[in-house]
Fold:
Amino acid sequence: MDNLFNSKESVLDKIEKIVGVRPKFYNVDLLDFSGLEKVFDENEFEAVIHFAGLKAVAESVEQPVKYYENNISGTLNLLKVMQNHSVKRIIFSSSATVYGEPKSVPISEDLLTGQGITNPYGRTKYMIEEILKDICVADSDFSATILRYFNPVGAHESGLLGEDPSGKPNNLMPIVMKVAKGEYPELSVYGDDYNTPDGTCIRDYIHVVDLAKGHIASLNKMSAGVQIYNLGTGKGTSVLEMINAFERASGEKLPYKIAPRRAGDLPELYANPEKALRELGWRAKLTIDDAMEDTMRFLRQN
Ligand SMILES: NC(=O)c1ccc[n+]([C@@H]2O[C@H](COP(=O)([O-])OP(=O)(O)OC[C@H]3O[C@@H](n4cnc5c(N)ncnc54)[C@H](O)[C@@H]3O)[C@@H](O)[C@H]2O)c1
Structure:
């Protein structure tokens, strides 16, 4: 189910090509309660994986009502319909943003959340996590798995599926892809004077296929109550290292300039992913170079 705000129905053809099965699809908005009811009336679900949301951080600062309505009201509609149909298992796409400004790295799941979040997008993730925890208190059969993504990158190895955002992208790799395609003249690297080995910010970039597999591992291990896992690699990579890796995969120089620091950017964020390994038997296996090669294949084919 998707309202196609940031996706295309043609993706279904590509999924069918890869897995040999065409997923049943509904073009429905989470804010359309009766549309949602119809989806649940017509199908029997064992569990819901809830990815749908708006995610542009800067836009969320400018248009908070839109973000709270889409992400919070949309999720509440989904949870109400799940309740009406006795569907009691949900996996939710949360974000490392909920940690706000963590005091130390690597970040473990038991760190305090909700403090120092700098934007409405991040707050919607935090609020939805709290809503899910409350439901698990009220209903001892309900199962909610919260997956806190670090920085997803890459594409499917077939080159068929990848990131192709509709609006102005916010994250590093979609911008790198636009620069590589010549749609943007250059990449801005926000700050090279941080206290990191090369002065640029360090993040935990995780291949999107590893991330997807984290959902399958979670689905196979669901039990009543709230489970929370970081989905990250545990390894930090700087912006300059990402640019170098992209250049290795593309064989071309990526034009970039050093720009002033952005307010709110923290020097270094990466996950402690041990809990997911211990409890789900999942860990990220693909490298940054894998992600860059897959991104290049997606770019060339699309
Ligand atoms: N990409 C990241 O860096 C990142 C990091 C942490 C968390 N997340 C979260 O993971 C989830 C998936 O992210 P993504 O990068 O694949 O984003 P995406 O925009 O590609 O996917 C979200 C999908 O939800 C759909 N959608 C949005 N609002 C909807 C609504 N009201 N009804 C129905 N469909 C709706 C969009 O059309 C889109 O296809 C999001 O919830 C995002 O916040 C993403």
Remarks:
- The chain has ten helices and ten strands.
- The longest helix spans residues 64-84.
